[in-house]
Amino acid sequence: MEPIVDLAPGAEENPLAAHLGLLIREHLARDPKRASDFRALRGSVLVVAQDAGASLTMRFDHGRLTIHDGAIGIPSVTFCGDDVALRRLPDIAFHRWLRFPKVGVLHRRQSGPLRDLARLVASGELKIYGLVAHPRLILRLLRLLSRLP
After folding, report:
1. What is the distance between the alpha carbons of residues 4 and 34, in angstroms, rounded to a whole number?
2. Residue 89 CA to chain centroid, in angstroms?
3. What torsion, rounded to 10 degrees, do the Cα atoms 88, 89, 90, 93 define?
4. Which residues are CB-contacts of 132 (< 8 A; sequence separation ≥ 6)?
5. pLDDT for position 106
6. How far apart are CA 40 and CA 63, in angstroms?
7. Which tens digits make up the pLDDT trace of 24-74?
8. Non-local CB neighbours of 10 within 8 Å, separated by 6+ positions
């Protein structure tokens, strides 16, 4: 089954929704291995850019993604922060075999974005609601968004 990424009516005008939709489509087309993560995703993710006053809901359903403008339903996970912090989520690098974020002494340069993200979460500039309840959903989403293999 081919992955489906749709923008709901009205989501085309939301720049963050258009950006994330295009990014996910490109990553699925470029790397077929990401399709397994995409098919495993089920739930909704609310993304709120506080400084831009924009929000979007990504609804995943085993191989189909619909991106809505605004908040739709009750999300499983919520990312809330500035637009700049949210657009840095794809910078996190992952191991090819372990499929976890690269950290440690051997990956100092590549683990910088993950450290920056952790700093933003610790300072409260980026809030991730549902991190403890849905860690696999968040990990798969970050792997899907990651620009680096």
Report:
1. 13
2. 7
3. 110
4. none
5. 45
6. 7
7. 999 999 888 889 889 999 999 999 999 989 999 999 999 999 999 999 999
8. 68, 69, 70
CA proximity to 86, closest of 64, 59, 116: 116
Compute the distance between CA of residue 54 and CA of residue 83 in angstroms, rounded to an integer: 9
Rounded-to-integer distance, Cα 106 and Cα 100, Å = 14
Q: What is d(CA 21, CA 105) in angstroms, rounded to the nearest whole number?
A: 34
User: Which pairing describes strands 126-129 and 64-69: parallel, antiparallel, or unpaired?
Assistant: unpaired
Residue closest to 136 by CA, chosen among 63, 43, 27: 43
One-letter amino acid at 19 equals H
User: Using CA atoms, how far apart are residues 51 and 33, in angstroms rounded to an integer?
Assistant: 34
The answer to whether 3 touches 38, Cβ cutoff 8 Å, is yes
